[in-house]
Each structure stands twice: as structure tokens, then as C-alpha cells.
Amino acid sequence: MARKFFVGGNFKMNPATRAEKVKLVETLAAADLDPNVDVVIAPPALYVIPTAELLKAKGNSFVKVAAQNCYIKSSGAFTGETSPAQLADAEIPYVILGHSERRTLFHETSAFVAQKTKAAIDTGLSVILCIGETLAEREAGTTLAVVEEQLNAVVPLLSAEEWSKIVIAYEPVWAIGTGKVATAAQAQEVHAAIRNFLSKAVSPSVAENTRIIYGGSVSEKAAPELASQPDIDGFLVGGASLKPEFIAIVNVLRKS
Ligand SMILES: O=C[C@H](O)COP(=O)(O)O
């Protein structure tokens, strides 16, 4: 079965005001989006529920909402955290975990990201699991070792069935927010290696069915060639998800 194209918009800590957020979500809710694509937007925590409510109020059940992070516990004395159970209760279906900004700025280890992934999956959420190497790691020739280490932390914690709730986002750190998008060949090479890894570490069927999306300075211009690669199943878009350009990226495969 063909893997369904998946485009996520990671707003990160943007936009700065509720008014801008409303405008952004209203534009997306009214847009003509390819129905053959899974579209998920991840606003900051403060806006997660209002975004879901706004989409509902606009009659849009197509665009789904993701949180950008969650903790490993259901509730308790964990100041500043959001639990997977709270997200599930709020009917937020997705969570982004392991983004490089969290790994780097907030010192999240692969083991911790894996624990979060397990907690989210156990709660019924779907996970956009981010992995990727830094420029130094790429230049040292360790790209595949890095992404395999990040995935290896998750593999023992999930059953083969649970992989159906995971979308892997390969995001080379050197391409994030830099305007320096990976070439289609560079991205395809790593995506194919990740699929090969999944085949050996989990199963050929999980490898075949798991969506592996690319993130890192995705733009309307770069999207078509990246999307034409056999192992690139969509995008996780940062900066461009805050612009009308996001609609063109979602619609990249649409035949007019
Ligand atoms: O989660 C999204 C990625 O970090 C990509 O961000 P960017 O498109 O701004 O480079």
C-alpha cells in the first residue's frame, strides 16, 4: 500500500500574537488543500486547544493539530509540562517529539525522547519523531550512526503495530532555519538508510509502511524535487508554515 503523503507545519514559538495565529489558522482552514495529504499543524502549547477549536468552528476537520512536546507522566508536580493524557483528553491527536531544538537547547537525550515517545503512544497519540545530525556529525561521516542511535533508543520500547502511529521526521540540524535545504539526493540517501534500518531493526513491513518525512528549510521551490524521491513521504515545515507558501507545499503532489 502506498504511503500517504504527510505535511506538518511546526510553528515553533510563533506567531507572537493571538491575532496573527487566528489569521494563519483561518487562512489554512479556508485553503484548497490536496485531500490525499495528511496535514498537521503544531502551534505553541498556549494555542493548541484554541487552534483545534478554531478549525472546528470553521468546519475544518481535515487539518489536524499537534503539540510540540509532552512529558512522560499523566499528571503531577511537573511545572511547565504538558502530559500526553491531557493532550488525548483535549482530542489533540499528534505530538512532535525529539525536535533538534529540544535535543540541543533543552538537553533532551535519545533515551528521554524514547520514553516520551512510549508514553505518548501508550496514551493513544501519534508521534512525529524527529531525528537528524549536526553539520559536524555530517562532516565527520557519522550521519547514519547518529540517526540510528536516535532510533535505536525507541526500537525496544515499541511493538511492530505501534510503529503505525509514528511518523519519522528526518531533519538535518544544519538545514533547520538556515535556508540551506538538503539536496534531494542527500535527503533521499538518508531516508533510504532509515528505511533499511527499520527493516532490519523492526520488520520489512514496518519499514515499508512508516512515513519518513523531511524537514529543514523546506520551501515551495525545493518541495517538488524532494517530494519526487521514493523514500521522502512528506515534510515537516518550520518557517514556511507561517506563510501562505505552506499551502503550496501541502499541494506539491497535486495534479492540476
Ligand atoms: O520542524 C521543522 C524544522 O525544524 C524545519 O524548520 P525550517 O523549515 O524553519 O528550517
TrEMBL record:
One of its GO terms (biological process) is glyceraldehyde-3-phosphate biosynthetic process. Transmembrane segments: none annotated. The lineage of its organism: Eukaryota, Fungi, Dikarya, Basidiomycota, Agaricomycotina. GO terms for molecular function: triose-phosphate isomerase activity. Pathway: Carbohydrate degradation; glycolysis; D-glyceraldehyde 3-phosphate from glycerone phosphate: step 1/1; Carbohydrate biosynthesis; gluconeogenesis. Homodimer. The keyword Isomerase applies. It comes from the Eukaryota. The keyword Manganese does not apply. InterPro entries: Aldolase_TIM, TIM_sf, TrioseP_Isoase_bac/euk, Triosephosphate_isomerase, Triosephosphate_isomerase_AS. This is Triosephosphate isomerase. Its EC number is 5.3.1.1. SUPFAM superfamilies: Triosephosphate isomerase (TIM). Belongs to the triosephosphate isomerase family.
